[in-house]
Amino acid sequence: MCMLLMVIGMQAQENIGVNPDKITSPVIHDDGTVSLYLYAPNAKKVTLSASFLGHETDMKRDAQGLWSYTTSPLTGELYTYYYNVDGMRINDPNNIYMIRDIAWYSNYFLIDGPISENYFVREVKHGTVAKVWYPSPTLKMAQRRMTVYLPAGYQEGNERYPVLYLLHGSGGDENAWSELGRATQIADNLIAQGKAKKMIIVMPNGNGTQEAMPGEYPNAMYKPRGMMPHSFDGTIENSFVKDVVSYVDSHFRTKADKHHRAVAGLSMGGLHSLWISCNNPDEFDYVGLFSAAISMSQKDSPYKYIYENMDEKLAKQFSKKPALYYIAIGDKDFLYKANKDFRAKLDKAGYPYIYKESDGGHEWRNWRKYLNDFLPRLF
Amino acid sequence: MCMLLMVIGMQAQENIGVNPDKITSPVIHDDGTVSLYLYAPNAKKVTLSASFLGHETDMKRDAQGLWSYTTSPLTGELYTYYYNVDGMRINDPNNIYMIRDIAWYSNYFLIDGPISENYFVREVKHGTVAKVWYPSPTLKMAQRRMTVYLPAGYQEGNERYPVLYLLHGSGGDENAWSELGRATQIADNLIAQGKAKKMIIVMPNGNGTQEAMPGEYPNAMYKPRGMMPHSFDGTIENSFVKDVVSYVDSHFRTKADKHHRAVAGLSMGGLHSLWISCNNPDEFDYVGLFSAAISMSQKDSPYKYIYENMDEKLAKQFSKKPALYYIAIGDKDFLYKANKDFRAKLDKAGYPYIYKESDGGHEWRNWRKYLNDFLPRLF
């Protein structure tokens, strides 16, 4: 089961210099080690940057100009990497599996194991993933794009489903959770195992000035630069129930009440989830804050009311006894202290919540883990 | 309107060697010329391969190690390119817009003009694009993946729509037409202008042993190698109406009759369209063969009946007077003669068809053009 990237055709070591197309990289060995290759006969120095390494590491050149690196045995996880050739960052040209984070692509591969078992596409029934355009009058946009996951079986019947609104972080977009986050695979697998309820998952765009991800709206083929305007200033939270939830409830077969509605997000999306839920205490019974950017709200905005009176709003929200208030963060996350302070506030007021602390920092390997732990607790 | 890739932040020429992240590439100038950049201070030779060039062309190095190339003014088109650094093929690390053709990614950019005007995302109502899994009993697969385009307005009413089945070529998959083919944008724009009818477009997977594109089915993160088994041997044509059409008619609001059903495809998909339509003369009233691989059917198969008795099958099909039989090919296509011979057969029998001959060969710029010309003729 470790041989997850199939080695097809000839071995990488053969025919080098004759046909670089025959290189296979990565090669996942039966013992869990992984070999990476790059054919760069004229390069002076090639290094590897990877999520399984603590630091940029030299690759080794053979006589024919094939550079390689073989890992120690890796535990189950989704790993990302890229190369640096004489100072120039590039992707592995022999690995078509890439994911974008803001302006950069990394290659990735999967190793099977307890943490990653639900990140794989398995022989289970798959849900439908749709790119849907909805009107956003509050943001004065005729159309905005969201990713909608409909569980397997949705197409065949008249059942109504609960809804999770799953929000991305700063620099991300409506594709982030379904690509970097493996949300589709995690939901498919947990639902097939009976560990999570069948649910609709709505992944909207959380950048207040974007209609959609780069390239998917008019005149938008730009190079992304990270944080977008009107993303931390209440704009999204103010519009959320009016534009997003009302569209979803009127266009999909939802159970359109608080007890069947969850909101969760990572980083900026955690900030949004906190404030969307406490400003609408009758709308969401389940809340998930993953590495939430609690301290980053900007109050110089027409929508600053969103971020005011936290204590009163939390008091009202918790007086209604939310079914789940879930907080998770890595012990090296730069937002650790902000989350610790927020938990102290909840503790002082006696508000119940579930807290999960992982190792590591502000990174996708944690957000996938939190989602995998969070979905079975819903509905 | 030519400045379609926005130049954000600093010019490429500034800060080189200090912060390569600030490079913008490509830069589309107001006069229709395009500048491409690569920061590779240690490279000895950098060349550019591009759809707007006839041959691999040297790029020019400046004193700081920034390589560049500026085109002459380009006409409206979707252009692809990649770099070759000292013999190593790479993508432009500053351009996140990439499309995959089998095992290789190329970067792309768009120039506006008469040919490409419908390739852009415009301020028009957008349809929904969904990845849908359907059972394929004839192929003995519990699930296969198709891309489904639902026209704007589908979500809001009870209208029924005609359906175009749009088939990819060898080495492609269910993502090919919506990515390389810009089918989503072409349909959105033609429908919004009133030039094409509102229709559902179904883009299935045409490889007989694949459940889905690489990476989207179990144990499938392999490096694609081109032609797949059981793609040219009648397997797909035999299963098509039984598995694909019956699922679509029972799960979407279609007008489920011959007069509201079209089948078209490029290369291998053109072969499939020819045989699907003539083996099912009561099912498809509109047929499109784009650079069809007419001569490539393999008759050593349990489904060889599909490819037998062409004359009799065409006679029956044309006796029912199809609403449209459309053939298009480039004058340098390697399949030109096979299509010429096929047209001679139709001519001899007196069967009417529309024929469009373009310049160029077996390439996506032609298939996008044919689709843009074909959609307004349907329904």
Keywords:
homodimer, 379 residues, alpha/beta, six-stranded antiparallel beta sheet, 7 helices
Could you characterize what this model shows?
The structure is a homodimer of 379-residue chains. The first copy, chain A, has 379 residues and is an alpha/beta fold. Helix content of chain A is 21%, strand content 26%. Chain A is built from 7 helices and 18 strands. Chain A has helices at residues 176-179, 183-192, 235-251, 268-279, 310-319, 336-349, 364-374, and strands at residues 27-28, 34-39, 46-50, 57-58, 60-61, 66-70, 77-85, 88-90, 98-101, 104-111, 128-136, 141-150, 163-167, 200-203, 261-266, 286-290, 324-330, 354-358. Chain A has an 8-stranded mixed beta sheet with strand order 11-12-14-13-15-16-17-18, with helices on both faces. In chain A, strands 3, 4, 7, 8, 9 and 10 form a 6-stranded antiparallel beta sheet that branches. In chain A, strands 1-2-6-5 form a 4-stranded antiparallel beta sheet, with no helix packed on it. In chain A, strand 3 and strand 4 (57-58) form a beta hairpin. The longest helix of chain A has 17 residues, at 235-251. The first copy, chain A, starts with 26 loop residues before the first strand and ends in a 5-residue tail after the last helix. The interface between A and B is large, with 66 and 66 residues. Strand 11 (128-136) of chain A pairs antiparallel with strand 11 (128-136) of chain B, so a sheet runs across the interface.
